[in-house]
Amino acid sequence: MFIADDTLFAKLFLSDPGATNFCGALADGPGSFQKRRESMKVSRRAFSKGCVLAASGLAIGEKMQVWAQVQGEHIQASDAHPVPAIQDTETAAQKNERMQWFREARFGMFIHWGLYAIPAGRWDGKEVPGIGEWIMNRASIPVADYKALAPKFNPTSFSAAEIVGLAKSAGMKYIVITAKHHDGFAMFDSKANPFNIVQATPFKRDPLKEIAEECRKQNMKLGFYYSQDQDWTAPGGAAYKTGDHQPPTYHWDPAQNGSFPEYLRTKAIPQMKELLANYGDYPVIVWFDTPTKDMTPELAGEIVKVLNEHPKLIWNNRLGGGYKGDTETPEQYIPAQGYPGRDWESCMTMNDTWGYKQDDTNFKSTETLLRNLIDIASKGGNYLLNIGPMATGEVPAPEVDRLQQMGKWLAVNGESIYATQPTLFGAEAGSFSTTEMDKNGKPKFIPSWKWRSTTGVDKVYIQLFEWPAPVFHLDKMPRHVTGAYLLADKARTPLKVTKTGNGLDVALPEQPLDPIATVLVLQTA
């Protein structure tokens, strides 16, 4: 995922009181969202030009997330491509068919797992600031020293059945796993490059193959994350600047030097071909990341030629070279109003890191995670929620617990999330301030956390965070309501509906049926 120089953060973030004030208010949300982060260990790109959340919305959390990627959905795109992509040539009907399952899924599992799980955030006996999977870059670990981790990687406790089963029990509909992250280590059997889990470790197994088999058994979609641009162990692979790494390459070890086009030709593109050919119907998603200036339109076009051979494939907006892909990818935050007319997916962590980091115990509550999901669905997006397995292959217990709790809520209330459309209302998410401005001089978005809404064919769902008994009131209801009940009420006891001009009132029982979110169903004709 994204990272940036801390000096840049200081200039952009600390110099802007408006941004810092807004970020301090990020913890102001429903229920348990009142705590603030007492210490900030900045290791990622920190809020676009100061604080991207001030303009775009927020990720709710008990403690403030201080690293959110700058570009994400803002990666520059162009309509003119040297190699036309599927998005350039398909009809609207074809795109709707291709994207249908993704639009209905709403909830997916991100898995960041690799060699970085061995040091787990520590090097030479010291904690390395930042996110776990960036430890090689952050600690300037030489290529040879990092590659020496591979013989120590033997995750014998890994169980594809358990991980896919965990996603299933959480109510997730798809999985995206890191096939190769920026460290260049392939978590699959690659003939294109020997630095992979089958050839370079005592494990000798392909976890992607095992996960693919389990996804078929458990009716789960599967996608692969692939770092196409950054590769810190392959000669010629790109690197983002951190610390004192110097331009133009930002490498810290001569072993990293080489030709970027040659790296693409000999490693990245051959590995992408392997991933697209060796796992049957999978992947259904390719999740690119961190494009640099090295990824020219011409070089990106060489990758697009490969992608075009798989016309049902979905891929995101992080390839580079001006290609917009299929999905916007806000990272660690939820845009204030979604992206009308575009498919999008907020990718977020449960704690502060993507790859496993033993010192990061700052886990969000189930309440936070569920309300993130509801908020995202109400704006027409998907929630890609991350787990970071340990070097043993096991998923940390706090992540398992939270996912299982989310699954219990979705088992009762999932009808209000899956295959729904965005809210018919909008104002319930909050509003733009008439007095406060963001860094760009635009009105700041002030969220509200009383309720959200999603839309079905003949139903409107109201997810109530604050219980408004004895009556839930709508000033305006654009559909004719024929009845109402609470989704968690197995008897579906009718609730009294009283029309009030263009709006309506619904009589509610004294207590909610769920402490996090009780769903009111309005039947419509």
Automatic annotation (TrEMBL):
Gene3D superfamilies registered for this protein in UniProt: Glycosidases
Domain Glycoside hydrolase family 29 N-terminal positions: 87-415
Residues that span the membrane, as ranges: none
GO process annotations (BP): fucose metabolic process; glycoside catabolic process
Keywords of this entry: Glycosidase, Hydrolase, Signal
InterPro entries assigned: FUC_metazoa-typ (IPR016286), GH (IPR017853), Glyco_hydro_29 (IPR000933), Glyco_hydro_29_N (IPR057739)
A Pfam cross-reference name: Alpha_L_fucos
EC number: 3.2.1.51
GO CC entries: lysosome
Keyword Signal among record annotations: yes
Site-annotated residues for May be important for catalysis: C347
Gene Ontology molecular-function annotations: alpha-L-fucosidase activity
Superkingdom: Bacteria
Keyword Protease recorded: no
Family: Belongs to the glycosyl hydrolase 29 family.
Function of the protein: Alpha-L-fucosidase is responsible for hydrolyzing the alpha-1,6-linked fucose joined to the reducing-end N-acetylglucosamine of the carbohydrate moieties of glycoproteins.
Protein name: alpha-L-fucosidase
The species this protein was found in: Acidipila rosea
